[in-house]
Each structure stands twice: as structure tokens, then as C-alpha cells.
Amino acid sequence: MIDLKKRKKIMGRSIKLGHCICNPKQNCPCPLFKEKNVCLCAGERLKDGIEDVSLTEFVENAGCASKISQDDLKKVLALLPEISDPRVLVGTNACDDAGVYRLTDKIALVQTVDIFTPNVDDPYTFGQVAAANSVSDIYAMGGTPLTALSIIGFPIEKLSHQIMSHILRGGMDKLKEAGTVVIGGHSIKDEEIKFGFAVTGVIDPKKIVSNGGAGPGDVLILTKPLGTGVISFARQLGKASKQTLEAISRSMVELNKTASELMTEMGASAATDVTGFGLLGHLTEMAVQSGVTVEVYAESVPLFDQVLEYLGLGMISGAIERNKEYASRYVEMSKNVGEEIENVLYDPQTSGGLLVAIPEDKGTLFINRLKQKGIRQASIIGRVISKSKGRISVKKK
Length: 397
Ligand code: CO
Ligand code: CO
Prior knowledge:
By secondary structure, this protein is an alpha+beta fold. It is 36% helix and 21% strand. It folds into 3 domains: 4-44, no CATH class; 58-207, CATH 3.30.1330.10; 218-395, PurM-like C-terminal domain (Phosphoribosyl-aminoimidazole Synthetase, Chain A, domain 2, Alpha-Beta Complex), CATH 3.90.650. The strands form 2 sheets. The protein has a 7-stranded mixed β-sheet with strand order 8-11-7-12-9-13-10, with helices on both faces. It has a 6-stranded mixed β-sheet with strand order 1-2-3-6-4-5, covered by helices on one side. Strand 2 (99-102) and strand 3 (108-116) form a beta hairpin. Helix 4 runs parallel beside helix 5 (161-177), helix 6 (228-236) crosses helix 7 and helix 9 (278-290) runs parallel beside helix 11. The longest helix is centred in the N-terminal third of the chain and has 17 residues, at 123-139. It binds cobalt (II) ion (2 copies).
């Protein structure tokens, strides 16, 4: 029921100002009032919002493709003051997955935040993907996530409360699986849906797996296939098959927990997770921070089915181009690698796998143990060959 008295009182104020009071860019009465007889200023809602929606219809850049490019980010961060506090063990200058702050000699906080736009249609699944993605940066450091705060941007006037609560529920359930509790959050009205978590964990300061510890003699292991960006883009074009979409959903909701526990147990030298900057973007950070040259074997990199097919049909998103623009200056690409594989190596991943450097003699055992635990597509994709300022060479064997 419309509260006409309330509406009259509030609209009176708006009309006097000549503007809608919740959106000063609009005149009062606003188009929504004229067309639908709804006054948002008076707290009225479009009838319960839309219940049944495909989330990705509401976004321009799906998932981690909504990230700001490495180039732009570095330019902005360069303008900020440097932090020099001895308790900061890993700070922004390390370009690592999460920050680490020493509390005592035995324990440090490890913190990260990640939000992005939907790249799956189902609200509950999107919540799970966002949670798995947010907590992944803690796993990439070898930490144990404990608590999380949710952050959500949501067009609450257009979409129903149900959708928002399904998203939050998906996130909470996934974090529960990670042994992490949601203890608060923040929400904001937004034209586009955005969701994720700020996650806090703990780590033994002596067991931090940074991205700067890789050395000659290490092999590189990737724990999930690549191509979530390409397939999400194909979906936006209406060209992705149902099986492929299901395959990336299953992968994106998968926690990097087991892989993280195994890598710490086995003594990994370095690790990061593969997300918005693509495999070569994140590998660039690892190579530069570690001061090494690495080789990647193009045909050993695990890929989702149909990814190369979509790329061959020209479905190359702008995000691939942006990632390439930054990272390709560190990369030497053998001519016989082929354009499709080259592109997928720059494809932004949402909730991608861990990229781990581990001494060669432990590599095969690590892979076998990952496979035993159900991480079946984990593969050795390359090796560290020498010390340098940071180079990547992509080859076909
Ligand atoms: Co990361
Ligand atoms: Co991140």
C-alpha cells in the first residue's frame, strides 16, 4: 500500500526544490514516478524488485575482468607514500596477494580484500565464487583465513531483496567451508552488482609463502585450468555452451585450501593465485619479485574445454589486451606457440588456481598428492632457469 500522506509530504519538499531528493540530477516528479507511480524518495519500491534475473545481464566487465589494469594500478600506487614499519612483513610494494603484519614472533595477521562484478548468472553461485576468490589470496600466502567482512554494491531499487540475500548466503556458506566466519559487512546502493570480502587470517611469520621466493631449480605448478575469462566473455556474446559454463562454475567455487595446505607442508618456494591479471600477469610479478627467468611450456598449461575454439572464433575480450599490454614487455613468446594459446595465457581468471614454485625433486610428489585430493588438473607448466631481473619465456617443447 502506498502511504499517500508520507508521499505528499516528501514530494512537496522535492517539488519545492525542483529536484528529486534522492537523486538531485533528476527533476521531480521523476520519470519513475511518471511511468510507474513509484516515489523512491518516499521509500516506495518497485513491486518487490525483479526476482528472476541473470546476474551477468547487469554487468559490462564480468568477474575479475572488472579489475583496474596492472599498468594503471602501478601508476596510481607510485604516487602514494612508502610505508616503512618493521611490523609490516609484506606490504603493497611487494605486489603480493595479501598484506602481512607481525603481531608476535610466532604469529602475523594476513589480510586481503577483493570485490568484483558477477560472471555467473545464479546469485547463490556468484556468492560462492566471490568468497572462494576473496579467500584465495590468503591461501596464496600459505595463511589460514579466520574472519571476513562482506562488501556488496547492489541496485536494491531494481532487484529483489531475495537476490541480495542469496548472494550473501552463497558467500557465507563457502566461507564456512573454509573455516572462516563472516562477522560483519558493508552495503552500498550501486547501479551494478559488486560483491566480495575483506578476509583476515593468521600465518607463522617464518612460513610466509611470498611471490618473491622462487629460485633456479624450482618447477612451476598450476592447480586449475585457464579460460574462465574467455568463457565468461563467450557467455556475454551468447556463444558459450552449457557444459563449459558448468565446468568453469565448478572450478570457480572450488577453494584453494587443499592446494595451499599441501604447498606449505611440502615447502613451496613461492606462490600466488592466478586472477585478474592472467597467468602471465601474475607470473610476471613472481619473476620480478624473485629476480628470476622462468620458462613456460605452452602445451603443458591446463585449459578448459572449448577455450581455444572460442579464441579461434575471435572472442578475445578487452581485458586480455590490457593484461598483454602490461605483461608482454617481460615475455618472450616463441613464434610456434600460436595466437590462441598466447591469448589464453593473458586471460583474466576469476577464482583461478594457485601458481606454485617448488624445488624440482618435490614437483612430481606434489602433483600426485594434489591429484589424490581431487585437484586433478594440476600440472607442471614450467621451471625457473636462472637469476635475472625478471623474464618469462614461453615455449613449445
Ligand atoms: Co592474488
Ligand atoms: Co586479489
